[in-house]
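Need residues for this backbone.
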């Protein structure tokens, strides 16, 4: 049990596998793990990138340069079928779990775009408050390599931070954390608890988490999945792509790092589990005494960053003198639908 203290923030990083390609079962697992982490005192709970319904590691979706296969399209349909409407029943269930836990919860999902199409998916981080509200979302700005076959790109309107009583929470997903300007945009928003859900299980990812903590002078919560080949549905179209893959497809590597680069929990490898830590938020201003990337260590007379945070919808409707862009941003939203777990 974490020691409760008014000066400490108790956090939990959940390294777990989804029930792959099954939105409802994975949502129920997220709710159960939220309750488990809260029972041990967690006030902020982080789940991995693409937790609901999964990160489809090892699948090719029937694609080579110049052609796509019929079976690969069926793989994509299975992925789309398991994706999350925002808001929708899955977000309602997680919001209720956050409310029952009295905790902030951040969870990686694959989001279906229903504003402009019924086809595009986004790798999205959702933020829920202890009152159960969906507080905001961040869509991954740049999917990496073959991820671009299955996910669209987010825009600057979802460079989201969440003000909380214990500090400002925000972050980036996986290799977005290698984008210096994206990191600077987050530092300039005053992030103190930086979330870095990922699918990167390499040893070198640990250096990235430490670097972000030192550069941003913030706590960094890195969160990955632990996934084996046996967890995939046997009847999934394209499952033969995994024939030559190792039994462990993602070994994890979740960790928690302090603003001065000290690893305070993890890294956790080769198992599911939950990392816990009690963070002293006073470490943030103490660490910024000698370095503040968006403050006294910046040189705006030499370097300046312009960030476009306007939504970029593909369709703008003009009606009379009014312009309706049907934009969707990162503002507070109440989840809808019926809870999937209790």
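Answer:
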């Amino acid at each position: 049990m974490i020691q409760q203290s008014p000066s400490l923030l108790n956090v939990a990083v959940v390294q777990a596998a989804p029930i792959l390609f099954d939105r409802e079962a994975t949502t129920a697992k997220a709710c159960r793990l939220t309750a488990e982490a809260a029972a041990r005192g967690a006030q902020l709970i982080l789940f991995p990138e693409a937790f609901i319904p999964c990160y489809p590691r090892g699948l090719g979706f029937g694609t080579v340069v110049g052609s796509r296969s019929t079976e690969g399209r069926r793989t994509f349909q299975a992925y789309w079928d398991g994706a999350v409407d925002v808001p929708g029943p899955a977000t309602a269930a997680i919001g209720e779990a956050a409310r029952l836990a009295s905790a902030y919860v951040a969870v990686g999902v694959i989001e279906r775009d229903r504003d402009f199409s019924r086809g595009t998916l986004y790798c999205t981080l959702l933020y829920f408050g202890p009152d159960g509200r969906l507080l905001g979302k961040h869509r991954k700005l740049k999917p990496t390599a073959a991820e671009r076959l299955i996910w669209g790109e987010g825009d600057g309107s979802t460079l989201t931070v969440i003000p909380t009583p214990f500090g400002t929470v925000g972050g980036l997903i996986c290799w977005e954390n290698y984008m210096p300007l994206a990191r600077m945009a987050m530092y300039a928003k005053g992030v103190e608890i930086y979330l870095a859900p990922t699918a990167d299980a390499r040893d070198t990812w640990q250096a990235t988490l430490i670097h972000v903590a030192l550069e941003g002078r913030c706590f960094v919560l890195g969160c990955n999945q632990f996934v084996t080949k046996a967890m995939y549905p046997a009847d999934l179209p394209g499952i033969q792509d995994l024939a030559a893959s190792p039994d462990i497809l993602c070994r994890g590597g979740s960790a928690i790092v302090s603003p001065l680069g000290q690893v305070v929990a993890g890294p956790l490898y080769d198992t599911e589990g939950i990392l816990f830590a009690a963070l002293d938020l006073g470490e943030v201003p103490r660490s910024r005494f000698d370095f503040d990337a968006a403050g006294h260590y910046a040189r705006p007379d030499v370097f300046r960053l312009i960030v476009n945070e306007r939504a970029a919808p593909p369709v703008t409707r003009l009606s009379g003198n009014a312009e309706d862009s049907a934009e969707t941003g990162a503002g507070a939203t109440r989840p809808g639908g019926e809870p999937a777990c209790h």
